[in-house]
Design a protein that fits this description.
The protein has 14 helices and 13 strands. The chain is an alpha/beta fold. The protein has a 7-stranded parallel β-sheet. The chain has a 6-stranded parallel β-sheet with strand order 10-9-8-11-12-13, sandwiched between helices. Helix 3 packs across helix 5.
Length: 348
């Protein structure tokens, strides 16, 4: 029987589509690969499941030689079923980070503590567990009690860099990207408050609010941003295809993140590849990991004390170090052999 590696993704198109391309074109192990994704309708190159019932029906149909890779582990209802399912013995998981941080909150409820224990039990049944950086690997070992969590970053896939940057003028303002999604973990209001002193300058505050958040939260963020910046605020509330999203990232001048966890890796990697300033909270695993590798990362708290002229100087500063380091660590070409080696070992 042909060996199969089955990749299981949640419904996050900007993640599962590039990764399917990466595994199919750049990282092909000596096994058949299948790609499952939670979507209401079928999409090319994927087998879709509509809900957890369909997911477990598909899992029941797999052969004992098949290896399963969960990309992200977020749904406690899936954990409960996996806890007593033999498929976990031939399953591995790539932790995104968000699943871990829920277990570090102060004053957790009894239900949240039970969910924590459930998550740890499931994770320890997996064959292999991977994290995207060293900080998250250490956190997984600490909060989920999983030994030997390996580090295996996702690559930056298919990002096209426009080499000619537009000059800042009164007609072309300083474009600041805030956050990467509508998820409340972006702490948009905190980031906006740190930028409020720039409201009288020639700026455009661009905020992707097109997926991942509750409508009530999105409305609150838009109301706050509009009160601070008026028509200088640009909320993106419709999904962008990859070409338009990449164009947006090429157009902005700098990015400000205020989330307390690793998030928005595609945006972060794109900024680093293009040598554009990026602000991260210094207590995040992303900040620690990237600075340890030598990247120049700015602290989010510092943007509140930087005036318009200082930000323009930062933008105009040539930064070849970050693009060079990106090419060393996070391109498809660099990471494909590592991912291929991991997939080959799943059958070992």
């Amino acid at each position: 029987m042909t060996k199969r590696i089955i990749h299981i993704f949640a419904d996050t198109p900007h993640h599962y589509k590039p990764m399917q391309q990466f595994f199919s074109q750049q990282c092909t192990p000596d096994a058949e690969q299948q790609f499952w994704v939670k979507t209401p309708e079928p999409i090319p190159n994927f087998l879709n499941y509509k809900d957890n019932t369909e997911l477990f029906s598909l899992l029941e149909s797999t052969a004992k030689e098949d290896q399963i890779v969960f990309h992200g582990s977020f749904d406690m209802h899936v954990w409960k079923k996996l806890l007593f399912h033999s498929v976990t013995k031939r399953s591995s998981c790539v932790l995104w980070g968000a699943e871990l941080y829920r277990h570090t909150k102060a004053n957790r409820t009894i239900k949240e503590r039970i969910v924590h224990v459930l998550h740890a039990l499931v994770i320890n049944r997996y064959k292999h567990v991977f994290a995207l950086n060293k900080g998250d690997a250490s956190l997984a070992q600490r909060v989920l009690f999983k030994r030997n969590v390996k580090v295996l970053p996702y690559p930056l896939i298919g990002m096209k860099v426009e080499r000619d940057r537009e000059q800042l003028t009164s007609e072309k303002p300083l474009k600041i990207l805030v956050g990467n999604s509508a998820s409340s973990s972006n702490n948009h209001i905190d980031a906006l408050n740190k930028l409020a002193h720039l409201a009288g300058e020639s700026v455009e505050i661009i905020m992707p609010l097109n997926y991942g958040g509750e409508q009530s939260y999105i409305d609150e963020v838009i109301k706050h941003a509009t009160a601070l910046f008026g028509n200088k605020f640009n909320a993106i509330t419709t999904m962008l295809n990859k070409q338009d999203y990449d164009k947006l990232l090429n157009d902005v001048h700098l990015t400000v993140f205020a989330q307390h966890r690793q998030q928005g890796l595609y945006v972060a990697y794109a900024m680093l590849l293009m040598g554009k300033p990026m602000f991260l909270l210094s207590n995040t695993s992303s900040y620690t990991y990237l600075t340890e590798l030598g990247f120049e990362i700015h602290k989010t708290d510092e943007v509140a004390s930087m005036n318009f002229s200082e930000l323009k100087e930062l933008i105009n500063k040539d930064n070849n170090r970050n693009p060079d380091l990106m090419n060393q660590h996070f391109t498809e070409q660099v990471l494909a052999p590592k991912w291929r080696d991991m997939l080959e070992k799943l059958h070992g």
